[in-house]
Amino acid sequence: MKKLEQKYYAKWMVLPALILFMVFFIIPNCASFVMGFTDWSLFFFDDPRWCGFDNFIRLFGEKNFWVAVKNTFYFAIVTVIGKNVFGFLLALLVQKQTRYNTFLRAAFFMPITISALVVAIIFVSIYNPTYGLLNKLLSAVGLESLTCDWLYTKGTSMNAICAMELWQQTGYTMCICLAGLQAIPNEYFEAARIDGASRWQQIRYITLPLMAQSFTVSIMLSIIAGIKVFAQVYGTTNGGPADSTHVLATFLYKSFGNGYLGYSSAVGLFMTVLIGVLTFGVVAVLRKREVEM
Hints:
The chain is mostly helical and 293 residues long. Helices cover 70% and strands 0% of the residues. It is built from 13 helices and no strands. Helix 3 packs across helix 7 (157-182), helix 3 packs across helix 12 (248-257) and helix 10 (212-227) runs antiparallel to helix 13 (261-287). The two termini are 44 Å apart. 29% of the residues are buried.
């Protein structure tokens, strides 16, 4: 009897989490897949009809949709590069196990524990053109000519949101890179120092190749976060000014808010396919560059 209990104990413990995952993830996503091919809306809530690819034809014909795609890709590219470059540099900075570095690690990681909407509210205040900290600082150091309304100037709004995302998320990438650094045997660096390798040569020929697995994980997560971006835009500009920060998630949100349930499901399905294609494609390429230790 005890052997039988031990055999099924782990499976029974997993069951509640599996049920929640099915109810709140698998079933809604399957339902959304079906809804994307219907004309279901709040105006005909009790009479959804199959419309095939009409939602996607309409979607690809909308100018605002392609603006959202362009902005989403811009945000994703800037943040993927920024998170991984700055995250790696921070990991190198705090690599050694000291009390001071332990404090720095906690300080760099702390922003990720804050809600994205709360961070958005904070940065709305920082970017405020009248009393915002950023403009005050620029004026204090004699760069008053650079001050502007960061969130509502078309040329700076998306970059301001990207900077906010980098401030919040780079610490998480740092942790992934730090784990990769600590997994590299110290003997490799000792042998390189004996052979006269400089610090830069050690990073280029030892650290970067052996951290390829960590970069694969961090880049994959960064791509997913970049394509799914919503709270950062919604909490700051809500897609403005003049749709210069309009992204796919805000496009979906506005479509859903207007009552077009089937159409917004089609947008969500497009985002799912886009994330899948980009993620698997990038991971397939990066996997080939990984080095076994």
